Amino acid sequence: MGIIMNVEKMPIDEAIEAKVINHIEEIFESEDASKEQLLYVLGNISKTSALHLYKKARMKSALSYDNRVYMRALIEFTNFCKQNCNYCGIRAGNQKVDRYRLTKEEILACCKEGYELGYRTFVMQGGEDNHFNDDMLVDIIKTIKDTYPDCAITLSFGEKDKETFQRYYDAGCDRYLLRHETASKALYEHLHPKPMSYGNRMACLSNLKEIGFQVGAGYMVGSPMQTNEDLANDLLFLKEFQPHMCGIGPYVCHNDTPFANQRTATVEETRVMVALTRLLCPKALLPAATAMGTVDPVGREKALKSGANVVMPKVTPRTVRAKYELYEDMICVDDEASHCRSCIEGRINIAGYQVDLQRGDHVDYEVK
Ligand code: SAM
Question: Which of 137, 263, 326 to mutate for ligand 1's pocket (most ligand atoms within 8 Å of CB)?
Fold first, then answer.
């Protein structure tokens, strides 16, 4: 079993607590960290030093984005997937999944509803479904872009070759989310059976950046067998790669996978990683993952209070939402898009932040 930090403990030794705080201050100032520093913080973080870390992460986020939280409309357009990630509920091998895919018209109807609700970014996410070949997806991207030229399109559709990514980009796709999942090769191989490979995942991320996308990396916290060393590797990779976006969420068990009965991560473990990511990627757009709301009723608000600054409410048709079950007890599966929109806005305001419905590009990105 992997062992990661224990955020729940109270500080027991003043010198250790002081050293953790000192490292956090140094990482805040330099926006850099050594592996030793990260391992020390992860190994000795306590309830009180974690609160200090969250405060510093919030300060860092405010330097680039003030107290704004960007909203994206999430369209889960297919739950067919050819991959077999060991943690994921919609993996190809899960025979219990009731598979669906949206038609072009249904996707456009989601965009229309999203646009009317004020969203100016559409995030199209799906399993790796070969039904959507390059020509089909290019056509869908072009149609969305022609209909809503003031909106950004984000695609999250897994690993493709560089030519395909280029075609998506040329069609008008602005951003691409592809969580690296873990920056440790051995853990990657534990999470993903062949033919998936760590090398290809990383090559995809480099290709996306070279093409000119705003690129999102990201990882799960508390995935089976993960250690603090793996988490430190994630942070060092992100510091080096500097993604424009970074999705960080807790691993949540799904019992119809090879990882049945594994431990689900906690909200505080995930907050520590969101906060450290914020210190090392000061300008990144960091979503408060929906999975945070599964492990804690106010998990997304807690993520915002630890350096996150994006939320992605669903506009997926209610008829299929529950079928996009990546993990168990997913939230927002029964709600109307308009309900999700006002629910999350209320939560953001109560948490003390301001909703921003513009495209919300990375602060250094020049829109093409
Ligand atoms: N197929 C695309 C890809 O590979 O990037 C996008 C869809 S994939 C289902 C979206 C993300 O869901 C993954 O990057 C993974 O981190 C997350 N995910 C899947 N199963 C999960 C689980 N059991 N707990 C938490 N997150 C999970």
Answer: 326
Element (H, E) at 68: strand 68-71
C-alpha of residue 88 to centroid of ligand 1, in Å: 6
Cβ contacts of 130 within 8 Å, gap of 6 or more: 82
Which residue type, as a one-letter code, is found at position 226? Q
Taking the centre of ligand 1 as the mean of its atom positions, its distance from the CA of residue 119, in whole angstroms, is 23
Report whether 11 contacts 46 (CB < 8 A).
yes
Atom of ligand 1 nearest to the CA of 178: 5
Instruction: Kindly state if the Cβ of 154 falls inside 6 Å of ligand 1.
Output: no
Residue 173 · residue 155 · CB < 8 Å: yes
Q: Please give the average pLDDT of every successive group of 10 residues along the chain, which has 368 residues.
A: 81 92 98 98 96 98 96 98 98 98 98 97 98 98 98 98 98 98 98 97 98 98 97 98 98 97 96 98 97 95 98 95 92 86 92 95 85
